[in-house]
Specification:
This protein is an all-alpha fold. The chain is about 65% helix and about 0% strand. The protein has five helices and no strands. Helix 1 crosses helix 2 and helix 1 packs across helix 3. It is rod-shaped and about 110 Å long.
Length: about 120
Amino acid sequence: MNSTIINDTVHVITSTQRRRRWSSMEKEQIVKETFEPGNSVSLVARKYNIAPSQLFQWRRFMENGASKGIENEENLVPESEYKKLEQRIKNLERLLGRKTEENEILKEAVILARKKN
């Protein structure tokens, strides 16, 4: 009788794992490793046990200037918050323009009222 032994390993996860938190400096260093000769995103992702898609996202952020905040030791503002603030500035500028116009009209009205007296 010909018998083959199949050795399948089953891993059972019994604990709940939390997300790992990477500092900005760690992320930048990991991303830089992907550009080193002989490295690829997949190799570096395996080395740090990170999903390649996560590493590609970090690379995209870095290419779009996210590392500038790291270099300048400044906090980064999410684009959505930036757009909200930009819209608020536009609204305030518009309101300031209206108030300036109202102020000019009132000044003229005071001058005309003084001339009549």
